[in-house]
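Example 3.2
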Amino acid sequence: MKNDDSGIGVVLDSFRLPVKEALQSAANLGLREVELSAATDEVDPAGLSRTGRRHLSRYVLDLGLRLSALGGDLGGTRFNDGAKLEQRLNRTRRIIELAAELHVPIVTTHLGRVDDEALRRGYVRQAIEYLAEVADRASIRVAFETGSADPQVVADLLGEVDCRELAACYDPASLLIDGLDPLAGVEPLADRIVIARARDAVAGAPGRPGHETPLGDGQLDLAEYLAALDQAGYRGVAFIRRTDAERPREEIADAKARIERLLRR
């Protein structure tokens, strides 16, 4: 982990604002690194002209921000639906190519459910192999978000493909929600984590699904999590993410303050 508080980042859609307003909010809060979703209409590669791409890059720079990653999670069944697999892979390829054009080093995405049934169907492995080729050609890291699978399973899958551009985006909240230990998964993916979320949650129980919480209100031990990332050799920043905040800006600001206090110790 970077140990300076200026290195805290944010996933822009946490603000629930149009892109430019979200970028302004990040800059106003002193959040210098940002992840921008390229799976929405505003920044969809299919609709973003070359002029629009230049303007976006300039706007980010003028605000003193660094565009550290593009989000490519397409939602739904992700890469588990054979009928939609080709379309989703092609769309992800365009996001990776956009990242290369904008000089953004990482694209995050989500494999979807990775269980015995999904592995038997083979679509997940097919997606990984295809994205490995695209990532290698573009020299872009493709980071698969944790969640919907044990991190050891994801680590094993990535290890089966000879491509160092394949990586992990570590989200402790998604692991908690799925009933997994948010800290135990760091070690299996240690050499693959290129982006890490600062996100909290309460684990599910019989008859009660898990859910996201503001950072510090859930079951994540933030200090231990940051220490585990550091021990694993992660030298990036913690990217704050909120998906269902009631007061997004205030909750993001509070999360930033919590991380700053720990980094200053």
